[in-house]
Every structure is written in structure tokens, then in C-alpha cells.
Amino acid sequence: xxxxxxxxLVENKFGVLARVAGLFSARGFxxxxxxxxxxxxxxxxxxxxxxDADEKTLEQIKKQLNKLIDVIKIIDLTKKDCIDRELVLIKxxxxxxxxxxxxxxxxxxxxxxxxxxxxxxxxxxxxxxxKINATLELLGPFxxxxxxxxxxxxxxxxxxxxx
Amino acid sequence: xxxxxxxxxxLESLNxxxxxxxxxxxxxxxxxxxxxxxxxxxxxxxxxRHEQGxxxxxxxxARATGExxxxxxxxxxxxxxxxxxxxxxxxDSVPIVAITGQVKTFLIGxxxxxxxxxTGITRPVTKHNFLAKDVxxxxxxxxxxxxxxxTGRPGPVLIDLPVDVQLxxxxxHYPRQAEIRSYKPTLEGHAGQIxxxxxxxxxxxxxxxxxxxxxxxxxxxxxxxxxxxRTHIPVTTTLMGMGAxxxxxxxxxxxxxxxxxxxxxxxxxxxxxxxxxxxxxDDRVTGKLDEFAPHxxxxxxxxxxxxxxxxxxxxxxxxxxxxxxxxxxxRFVKTAPNIDDWLAKINGWKEKAPLKYTRxxxxxxxxxxxxxxxxxxxxxxxxxxxxxxxxxxxxYYKYTKPRTFLTSGGLGTMGYGFPAAIGAxxxxxEKIVFDIAGDGSIQMNIQELATAVLSKINVKIxxxxxxxLGMVRQWQELFYKKRYSHTYLNTCNSPDxxxxxxxxxxxGIRVTKKSEVKKAIERAIxxxxxVLIDFNIEKEENVMPMVPAGEAINRMIGGMA
Lengths: 163, 561
Description:
The complex is a heterodimer.
Chain A: E1 2-11, H1 16-26, E2 30-38, E3 44-53, H2 55-67, E4 71-76, E5 82-93, H3 99-108, E6 112-116, E7 120-127, H4 129-139, E8 144-149, E9 153-156
Chain B: E1 3-5, H1 6-16, E2 21-24, H2 31-37, E3 44-47, H3 51-65, E4 69-73, H4 77-91, E5 96-102, H5 118-122, E6 128-131, H6 135-150, E7 157-162, H7 163-167, E8 169-171, H8 191-203, E9 207-211, H9 213-217, H10 221-231, E10 235-237, E11 252-255, H11 262-270, E12 273-277, H12 283-286, E13 297-302, E14 316-319, H13 322-332, H14 340-352, H15 365-376, E15 381-384, H16 388-396, E16 405-406, H17 417-427, E17 433-438, H18 448-454, E18 460-465, H19 470-479, H20 497-503, E19 507-511, H21 517-526, E20 531-536
Parallel strand pairs in B: 2-3, 2-4, 4-5, 5-7, 6-7, 9-10, 9-12, 10-11, 12-13, 13-14, 15-16, 15-17, 17-18, 18-20, 19-20
Antiparallel strand pairs in B: 1-8
Helix pairs in contact in B: 1-2, 1-6, 3-4, 3-17, 8-13, 10-13, 11-14, 15-16, 15-21
């Protein structure tokens, strides 16, 4: 199993997300993360999905997605040069002793502290998977209360041309 | 331009699509639509007695004619009753458009009376579906629905139409073309791939054509015949492909798979080249996948890319319309490869292990089918239910033309055959239409006898009555130590199918002896009315040969020693 990033352009209509989600559940495909929003063209939405699959299943996922009438285009970003980002909000346990250490740790990663309470503070991190993982590793020992992630989004780099 | 209501727009749109007949059933959420159909001759409306019957009839109409079949039902239970029929059409790539009433738009999501999320329920069993929320979009939706249903790999499309949209009005313009930017099926095959296929055929020593329903759908049977004429490559058909190549032709190996012929299955297993056309390597065909055709390179011609390399690894895929691809292929394939040894070997198998049953004085189902074949001179449209009746109908009637064998292959829907026969007869009134049924499945849509009788749709039903749910009983006999758990239907005691037929105003004939078979079939054909023949066949006759589930397809019960 491997993680693949697919960028799927779909008609911006009601019910399309249900069609895509239904297809994944009906055929037993695994979605790792999914981010959906309108594109520069308001009639088109982009779904950026990370799927867990082997090569054969990935082929089926792409073919089955293409069969949906509302799917306009599928771009497999996995092997393409692209910029990918995810935003993560991490609520970390603090006390009088650890508070400054957590703030320092966040600073060292250029992550922002966006909320501060008595028993916890919230760190916002934006980055690719490597950066997010590094942040989670560094903050983990302090005690994580909650993590909220947007799921990965990605855009192709200009140098290799458009898909 | 004068304004029209949604109900009128729908009916006008159907006229633009040249819809001649609608099968359906009224209800509260389609009242405005039915009101506009009052006294209207075109399209013809055929009132079934259950919505499932309407869906199967639309399906049978579509398979028999190649046109889009249309069915209509009300919201909620009316729509959910269509679902089995829609799923049946979906699995077998049959173009139907199902129209369902829906509660008023402002009530949607409110758990209103007779409300169901029909677009949600049918999403996995339709090629596409629409909820028409605005009357201004309706004409375009109908146009797109028919376009999607009949093009590419065909399939069912559903239009959910709320009551208030049926009543709202706007100007009517029917679009000339459906413009769907995200839907452009590939029709032309890749030229390079077609040349590679020709090369592979030329070099092959043990080739076989494995052809399915796609050949019938694309109308590629003439091209297929020409390919065989030039190359002498033997042909095996799937259940869905029966009629795509004549069973009577010397190159025909009949059906393959679980209840295929011994020689078709052996030929597949020993082949060095399988040319699959419009078939999808279903599990009933391949048997144990790891041991399927171990020496063969596989060519796969199909319009649906997702069918390619789904189950087996394909060496030369070619996506597109079978007819166009075969036409192109014929430009490069002029002569036969050197396969005389291969053909001799196959002929040896044919002689050694033909399809056979015990020919004695007992009333056996295979004999009934052979006699239906003889009496109709092979010219009838045969529909089937599902189970033993279906397999015997596939094995013992010889199909020579496309669209003459209508069966629920993918979903395996009991209760399909009779309403499908009604639809087929409406579409092809000049044909004799026989539903080959079992005593279990005929009872699943028996109420359509009223439809057939009252709408004067003259169909013939041959019930192979063994008082059992025969195919399941067969599995219990062979794999569950004869523990016949709840498969004895006791149809010998209830119902009396002859009386049931008569109660509906159809003709009922009971046949208990082999000697009565011919006469009964001939009488049924002559009757100007719907006829049900209750053949009281041998109770524990089995469909043979048979590949046990999970076995390689050349290891057959009743196969070669």
C-alpha cells in the first residue's frame, strides 16, 4: 500500500461529493484525506484526495472516478512536481513549567501559537507532510489534547508545465 | 412562445426522443404527469401491476429493440420498487430512463408522505441520475438523460421530478444536442493497438474469441462473423453475448464459464491468445482467477476502460466501440493464422464431451427447451428468469441473432423474465416471445399476467416446474450434503399455476408427460392470448456441466475424465 495524491476536478453541483464518497465506499477504496472547494471557475470544484492503494487499485480508482459523469478531470500528482500543503491545528497540554518550552518549540519550527489557555495552547502549522510530521513529533512529548487537520491540498509546479 | 408545464415538457421531450412506449404505475406524486397523459396516444402507456414489472419491461423493450426503454413510477415506494429493475439494467448495461415523482421541492428532506431519497438510493445502480429542481432545466435534463443512457457503455439513468416542478411552467426549447463537458466516451480504437492485435492474431497458434454483450450492444455481429470467416478462430460467448455469434456455426463453442461447454472451457484454458470483445471477465466466467488461461496473452476490446485489467492482466487493451474497432481490425487481418492443429484438438473435445442429458421417457427440462427451439425454428425471443431455467435456456436453445436472448446476467434477478418478455413483445410484436421460467421465479412477478392479458401483449411462459428453488437446491445437493434448507417450494401443491393463469384470463396448460410437450408448445404458439405452460419436470435434474465455485474452469463436474 502506498499513498497517492489525486487532484480531481468535478462539476460544482450538489450531490457530487456523495457520488465520489459513495464510489469509494461501494468499491472498498480507502480515502486518507479529502479537501474540497471551488476553483477559479465557479462551476468547477477541486477535490484533492490522498488515497491508500496499490498500483492496481489506484488504476481502478482513477477509471471508476472517470466513469462518474460529473468528474471532469483527474490529475495524479503523486509522481509530478508539485507543492503540497496541509494546515494543522494542534492543541498541546501546558502547565506553568512547560508553557514556555512549548512556545519555544513552536517558534523553532516557525509554527504560530494562535490560542493560549490555562491548561493548553493551540499551535497552527502549515506545511508539507514532512514539516507537519516534524511538528507533531516535537510537540508530542508535551501531551497532545487534540489535532485537527484540513487534509492535503496540492498544486503543480510551473516548471514542469501544466497537466 | 407559449408556456408549458413541467409535465407537458417531460412528455414533449419524450416525443423528441422518439419514445414510443412508457411502462409504469401511477401515484400521488405523478398525478400532474398522469393528468397530461389522459387520452394521449403517444407515447403509448402500459400499466403494469407492480413498479418492478415496469422497470423490467422497459429493460426487456430496450434489449429487444436497442432503443432506450422508459419506465415511470411515483415517489417513495413506487420509486424503491423500481430499484431492482434499475440495478438489473445497470449490471447488464441496458439503456433505460426511469422517471420518478418526488414530493414538492420545499418538502424534500422533511420526511414527507411517500418521500424517499431516490437519487441517493439509486446512485450506485444508475449510470447517472438527476433531481430536477427547476422546470427551466427539465428539457435539458431529459436530453442529457437519454444521451447518457444510450451512449458509451449504456446504462440506466433516473430523473426524479418533484410535483411542483411538474406543475410549474416555462417556455419549452428542446436542445438539439446534449453538451456534457465531462462525458465524452471513447469510440475509435487506438490505431497502434489495433495493429498490435492483428500481429498477435497472426502469430497465435491457439487463439480464441471470447465475446460478450458489448458485441450485441454495438451491433458488431457482422464484423465478428467476418473476422471468424477470415481467421477460423473459434468463438465462445458469455451469457450476455448469446446471439452475438450463431450457436449453429461450426466455429461456435457455445457458452463458457460455470455452466459453459466443456470444450469452450478447455479451449480457454489451453489458448495462447484470448481476444475478448465486449466482455468483462466476470467471476462466473473466469472461475479461479489465478489459474485462468495460464498460457494466454489477452487482448481486451471494450468501451469501458474500468473493465480492462480489473480482473485479469491484459496485454493489449483497446478502448472503444467494438464495431468500429473490429472494422479497423479487418483492414489488417486478411487471412487465417496457422491453427489447424488447434482446431482439430477442439473438435476432439467437442466429440468427446458434448452437451448432454439423459434422453429417456422422463419429462426433462432440456428436452422442453429443445422443443421450444424446434417449434419456433430458432426465431423466437427468449427471456429467462434466474437459476436452472436460465442455464438450460442458454445451453439448449440455439441463438443465431443478437437481441433474441434476454436474461439478467449480472445481477441475477429472479422475476426478470416475464415482465422483460412483455417489454420485448411490445418492442418486437412480430416475434414469438417465450419466457423460460422456474416455478420460483415466475411467482416473483406473476401479477404481470394482468398486464399481458389486459394490454393484449401475447407472450408465452414455459414454467420448468420442479417444485424446488432448483439452482440453490442443486448447490445444496452437491456442496451441502443434500440438506435442502428451505428450497422446497412445494409448487406441486400451491399455487396451481394453470388455475392462476386462467384466473388472470390467460391460457393455462399443464404438461406432465414427455409425449405432451410438442403439442402443448404448438398450441401455445397458435393461441392469440398469453399462455402459461406448467411443465412438471424431473424434480432433481441438475444443470451440467458445472465448475464448482472457486475452481479453475477446466475442472468441471460432468467434464472430461
